[in-house]
Structure formats: C-alpha cells, structure tokens
Automatic annotation (TrEMBL):
Reactions that this protein is recorded to catalyse: Thiol-dependent hydrolysis of ester, thioester, amide, peptide and isopeptide bonds formed by the C-terminal Gly of ubiquitin (a 76-residue protein attached to proteins as an intracellular targeting signal)
Entry keywords, A to Z: Hydrolase, Protease, Thiol protease, Ubl conjugation pathway
CDD domains: Ubl_USP14_like (cd16104)
Pfam families in alphabetical order: ubiquitin, UCH
Ranges where the USP domain occurs: 135-383
Ubiquitin-like domain residues: 31-100
Descriptive protein name: ubiquitinyl hydrolase 1
This enzyme's EC code(s): 3.4.19.12
C-alpha cells in the first residue's frame, strides 16, 4: 500500500516517451578475383571492398614482390588508383585482373652468419667492450711512463696498420738490429691488446725498449727500476718508428709517422739590434705547451711555446745577437700530439724537476688563430 503524500494529494506520475535510435550497418562485400602477372596467376585473391585499393595492392606485393607504387592493375575504365571506389568498378566473383610491374630483387643471404654478442664465450664478450681501447697493460715496476705512451699510440688506427705491414714485409726478415726488434715487439703488443680480455704484461716490448735506449734501464737504491719521463719515451719510440715505417721499406720515402703526427712550422725572427730578419721552416711531431706561474689554460701554454726568442749569428753584425719572433703553423696532422712541458732542468741540483701546476684544457682544441694566413685560407671553407 503506497504511503499517503504529505500534502494529501496523490503523487503525479510523469511518463517519458521512449526514443529508439535506428542504426544502419553496411557490410562490405568480399570478392575473390584472379590476378595475372607475367607468367604467374594468383588465384582467389580476396578483395575487401570496404578498404581502399591500396590495401589490395599491398596484398599483391606480398605475393609478387612488386611494390604498390610500381603496380599497374588494369580494371574497367583504366588503371586502378590507390584511392579508387570499388563500387564503381563492379567487381565480379572470379574476375581476372591484369597486373604489370617489376619486382624488387630478392635479398641475398649474408655470406657470413651473424654472430650475436651473447653467443660468444664470456672472455670474448668482455673483449668486445674494451677492443677500441685495448685490454690494458700491467705495470712491470715504474713502467707507467711506457704504458701511457703505448695506450695513446694504440688509439691511432693507421699506426696499427703500418706496424702490421712492416712485420709482413720481405725486408723485415733480413733485419736484426735493436730498432727492428722494437718495432716487431710493438706489433706483437698491439695484437695482444686487440685479442686479450685481460690486462697484458708488455715484457717483450719493455726489454726491446731498454735494449734500444739504455736510459730506461736505470735503477735506484734497492735495484728498483727508476721512474722515467713519458715524453722522452714517446719521442724516442716515435724516432724509431719514423725511421722504420716508410713506404715499401725505402729509406728516402715519406715516413708514415710524419704523415700521421707531423706538423709544419714557419718561424719569423727579427734582430733586436737592427732590421735583419730570418725566416725558417721546420717540422715537429708534437706541439709544446710551456707551463709557467702565469699559465692556467692549455691555449696559454701553446702561445707561450710558439714565442721564439734566441741568440743566433747575425750576418749583418758579424756576431751573435738576440733575435725575437714567433712560430705559426703551416700544416696540421690527422693526429695532433700536445706535450705538457712539466719537467725542467734545475742547474743548482743538476737534475730534473717536475712542474705540478694545474693546467685546464678544452675537449675541442681550435688552433685556427695560430696558423699562417695560407693555412687559414685552406681551413676557412671546412669551418
């Protein structure tokens, strides 16, 4: 029994009319056709008339290898367009269509099977990660100077190739001097750094280096080998390489080392006691960075090293006089070596002393302003 309304009047009932929406569904027809292409006939290819003809062309691409943009399909009224209307074409079941077009070349199988990193032995997997930098060198007792030199040179790909060519040359088998043994030891060491998954003991290279340059065999108290200067090791080793690594083993040919590391310098000097000038051209394998109390950045040290004040014989005065000037770069190598000049000779104690001053350097070194005008013109376009 319904409860009485508070006002005493019966509640009014509002009836809302129902609205029934009508939806029309169009079912696209599926028609099977036969497509003739060259000597082949693709039978019962389904055509979904609810999809644009481009979808049909994609189906034919999977069957024939002819890309859709190259397909010419003959239909009623001309060629089938990518956005054509199937309804206007009036396809019939089993209708034959003609297709023209050239298929893409079938991709060739790789000559060598792909080897994935995870399929390699564990040691080789580790080696792949360090291959670009070498496996590392063991310190054989104060040999960090040598190890740092080797690691820097190992990062120069053309040097690796030059060492391999030297070791494989016929002339190499007739050599037996200490320079030859040092170059062969370097080639073997480069191979070990490439192949090893752990640090390499450079014993053979160290012995060959000490044989060629006995100063690296100096021993201190207790028979321990003394620390040496990396720059001296670099210079001496490159001197041997420059003499040995020549094209076809000809002594008069250009050295591979000069091509990799050589830079050209032009020096202009003026006599302090007159107007006499001297112009000189020279080459070097390193660019110096002199360090003084005022040098905080690499560029400052390079500019300081390019200043060239020295005493020379004056043809005008007939005696030695002071000439002042500076050097400019006439050519730059593919691999530029910059030496921080951190050692100097102390006359009072008659030994080398190390400069410990901090010198910052950029990740990208721009030497444009230190080049001659001729070299600047060559560099302007690439810049």
């Amino acid at each position: 029994t319904p409860l009485p309304h508070p006002t005493g009047d019966p509640p009014k009932t509002h009836t809302q009319p129902r609205v029934q929406s009508a939806q029309t569904f169009v079912v696209a027809a599926m028609v099977k056709v036969n497509v003739k292409w060259q000597k082949e006939t693709f039978k019962d290819v389904e055509v979904d008339e609810g999809q644009p003809p481009l979808v049909f062309k994609t189906q034919l691409f999977t069957l024939s290898g002819v890309p859709p943009e190259r397909q010419k399909i003959m239909v009623k009224g001309g060629l089938l367009k990518d956005d054509g209307d199937w309804a206007k074409l009036g396809l019939k079941e089993g209708q034959k269509l003609m297709m023209m077009g050239t298929a893409d070349a079938v991709p060739e199988a790789p000559k060598e099977a792909t080897v994935f990193l995870e399929d390699l032995p564990e040691e080789e997997q580790y080696n792949q990660e360090t291959k670009a930098y070498g496996a590392g060198l063991q310190n054989l007792g104060n040999t960090c100077y040598m190890n740092s030199t080797v690691q820097c040179l190992f990062s120069v790909p053309p040097l690796k190739s030059a060492l391999q060519e030297y070791a494989a040359s016929p002339a190499s088998s007739t050599q037996s001097d200490s320079s030859h043994r040092l170059v062969l030891a370097a080639n073997d060491l480069w191979k070990d750094l490439d192949a090893s998954a752990s640090s390499v003991p450079p014993m053979r290279f160290l012995m060959a280096l000490r044989e060629k340059f006995p100063q690296f065999s100096q021993q201190g108290e207790g028979g321990m080998f003394m620390q040496q200067d990396a720059e001296e090791c670099w210079t001496q080793f490159l001197y041997v390489l420059r003499e040995r690594l020549r094209e076809n083993g000809v002594s008069t040919a250009d050295s591979a080392i000069q091509k990799m590391f050589g830079l050209g310098l032009h020096t202009s000097l003026k006599c302090e006691e007159g107007d006499e000038t001297i112009e000189e051209d020279s080459t070097a394998l390193t660019l110096k960075c002199n360090i003084t109390i005022d040098v905080n950045h690499l560029e400052q040290g390079i500019d300081l090293a390019l200043i060239d004040d020295r005493e020379k014989h004056s043809a005008t005065l007939g005696r030695t006089a002071l000439f002042k000037g500076k050097s400019s770069l006439t050519s730059l190598p593919p691999f530029l070596t910059v030496q921080m000049v951190r050692f100097y000779y102390k006359v009072d104690v008659q030994q080398k002393a190390k400069i410990l001053r901090k010198v910052t350097f950029p990740t990208s070194l721009d030497l444009f302003d230190r080049c001659t005008d001729e070299l600047k013109k060559e560099l302007e376009s690439p810049r």
